[in-house]
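Hey,
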Amino acid sequence: QVQLVESGGGSVQAGGSLRLSCAASGYTYSRYLMGWFRQAPGKDREGVAAISTSSGRTYYSDSVKGRFTISQDNAKNTVYLQMTSLKPEDSGTYYCAIGPPIGDPLMTTDYSYWGQGTQVTVSS
């Protein structure tokens, strides 16, 4: 049984920061990807950032490069998303996901398991 639990969401003013956490359990493969995705009301879910748990290589969407940082703590099986210089368009439900190291790291269909999501609201 694979479980992903997100935390750290909340409401902030534009220009502020938040750090999201995703605790994973039950995934036994040694090589895999963990990613962050977000979905705004009425919009498709989009890939934000991803990390290879074996190599540490990271991937970012163009809209968040330079502002967001994804990292991992292997001992805790946890991945983080440090978000800075937040903009209103960053608002949405953020989901953590895990999957095999194949395909596009920022493509939703390449991931096998998903968390329940955590809400991020950025006001202007």
